[in-house]
Model the fold of this input.
Amino acid sequence: MRRNLAVGVAAVATMALLAACGGGGGDTPAAESTGSGGADGSGAELVIWSDAERAEAIKNAAADFEADTGATVTIVQKNFEDLRADFLSQVPTGEGPDITVGAHDWLGEFVESGVVDTLDLGSRAADFEPVTLDAFTYDGQLYALPYAQESVALIQNVDLVGDTAPTTWDEMIQMATDAGFGDRPFILYTNGAEGDMYTSYAFQTSFGAPVFVQDDDGSYTSEVGMAGDAGLAYAQWIHDNGAAGTGYFTDTVDYDIGNELFSTGQSPFIVQGPWTIPTYQDAGIDVAVNPIPSAGGETAAPFVGVQGFYLSAQSQNALLANEFLANYVATDDAQQALYDADPRIPALTAVAEQEADDPIIAGFIASAQNGVPMPNIPEMGSVWEFWNAAQIALIKGDDPQTTWTGAVSSIESAIGG
Amino acid sequence: MSEAPPRESHARSWRGLGGGFVAKLLLMMLVNAAGIAAILSAHAAQAWVILGVLVAGLVVADWIYFSKRAVPLKYLFPGLVFLAVFQMFTLLYTGYVAFTNYGTGHLGSMQQAVDAALIQDERPVEDSPQYPLSVVRDGDLLGFAITDDADTVQVGTAEDPLAEVDGATIGDNGSPSAVPGWEVVPRAELFTDTDLQQRVVELRVPISDDAEDGSLRTREGSTGGVYTSRLVWDPAEQTITNTETGVVYSPSDRGSFVSPDGDRLAAGWYVSVGFDNFVRAFTDATYAGPLLKVTGWTFAFAILTVLTSFGLGLLFALIYNDQRVRGRKVLRTLFILPYAFPAFMSALLWRGMLNSEFGVINEWFFLGSDIGWLSDPWLAKIAILWVNLWLSYPYWFLVTTGALQALPADVMEAARVDGAGRWRQFRSITLPMLLVSTAPLAIASFAFNFNNFTIIYMLTGGGPAFSGSSTPMGSTDILISAIYQISGVSGGRADYGLASALSIVVFIVIGVISALAFRRTRKLEEM
Done:
């Protein structure tokens, strides 16, 4: 996940770099041995890595589990951003957890590095939103138990433009212009001058130019899909709305500025995720949430991000861990508790429907239903830098043809190398 | 150093109240207790190398502090331990990684890669139902008992395929609760016995005599499903064979299983690759070009930062050292403020202020024009230098103010009497004398800025990206931030081997420059 890079991450990141280079530290041998020596008959220990939001909900599910099985569950809290690199480096050394919380786009690297085990939900699989299972499927195998999904959606200021959902880009611009926002009808979040193609991906798919081509069963291939005319049309569209065209897009909107512009009513439309809603509501804005309008004619499909529980391939307690996931975390109650702890769209259909009474949640669900899972293949990691840079170059008015083909060939050679 | 007359230390013998001796004894007891605890846990974790080092360290510590013969070591030993743990170990480990291909896809051992290949290959048979299952045993022999669709109970082991048994009873939850000739393992025992768990998870029971039909496995011990796998691991030959196609995957010297056709299995392990990483950093066209630019900018950034901040700090120090300036103390305190803020907060603030559309810099000083301070390659470099100047000149202001006040007044007096002008005084006396005390600090500042990750990461993130390059580096990336990108900690494909190799190159560069520069400063002192 590229966004939400918390303030102060630099310090943590340098530490992580040191830790990664330094390997599993020489002077802390007794960190957490993942339940060794069952010969003495004592209860096994299940180690679960979680971020702060979910720790409490997992703890509740674990309490029943501990009572039923006599095992102890240790929950280790980490920053969400650190889980990926730590899981990758710790599992092979035997110091890793049995289960970790994680995002689905880490899967490709996890599989390639051999750190995750497969999972079988059996008949329970039918109760989950299909997109959440697809996201955790790699090469036909399911690798994690999903619990939440999220995607961005079109958020509009009801007081300024009403609550009618625009279905096309032009319609949206018209609505904003009629309301007197011809200068900035729409806020495109670009993470300042760094670029952010994640948030605006739906516009790209509406031109029929997916980042990677999906095969028949929905798995991503490593064939770059944004080359060719469809991709160029999208590049041209960014260019036409950047400094060289209408000027709607700028390379100045970072997360805070985007929220500020929307919260102060300086622009009526923004594409953002559910995590921004409290900011707008606290500022007294009446918001409506709808699927993202199409700019290129086809359905605008945003990236859907899915969170779930991964099982370590080196777990010494695989049976316990499977029991915990299948019968204590996959339950409606546990999923509801996870939702209450951190409201993201639940992966379990029954729980999601229960929460869809809220029009804002319903809006995000509708947007996610148009969406495609963010690619979970490891090649995706090589895409962002070039893709984001191309967005900025186009906004600044560089030639669409050379910029876009250059970015695509950079991506292709980075993947090949 | 002149030695004091031979006198026993307080810590060596019991004199008076014996305070010194007791304090030493208590401290050494703590050290020994911590050491023994660490040794025991190293033993439990079967980390023999760490255990050996710990034992040796503890023995040496005890010898040093209870022997008469090791007085200097008493002072040096704690420092040496820290040096070994925090410097030497990290350095040696980085060095080791630099000669491997440790990174995405090559993180574990060969055995783990085999495990992963087998795990990833084993797939549930399509439309296979899930059967309620119990684990059964007969002495040491483990088996599975399932309730099939017709509500009959079938039992099988690793050797014997599933077969119907008569007279079994089915429990409330649908799984067999009693099977004649077998003992049903209670769930509670399954959960508490880790060894048994492992055996159950690894057990595969063929569903028929034909191995192609697949075999039954359980993940959590209460339901079973039918799975097939195509890959077979041959430990003797060290190869993996695909039984369906007959393709044999053998280990390559790059830490992957490769078929004769060049197909590669996903998971690999890490192996030593010699000097490859170093060679790649300097010759691989995708890295060499951008890295050269990055290196050039790293030097420019570090040198210019030291020069500008030293110059500005010294200028202000000279001005505010003058007796005629009023309220010097208050002003000096104000000057230190940028230095007192956390650098990453300042960088974030500046990032906002430099925003080309909403930032105050353009609004106040450039008549609201859209100057892309952070998105133009050259302006971004200037912005970085400017912000770093703002952050670091107070340090030089402090240091040079102190140094100026320590200059001997008589030398200046003599220069004035000899008729030297202000400029001449500064050039020939003040500056050389200042440099004697501040040059070592300037070298330290250079080394620090050479690796000043925070400012780059927080202000520009290394951007704007090099256009048309296929490495994720940008115009303001310095070596350390480029290494961070390559290491893949932030996302993307990780290559710790290459990142470590580059770290070592950076270490050598800084080491050599510092050594040369320190030699030059010694010449300054001789003037």
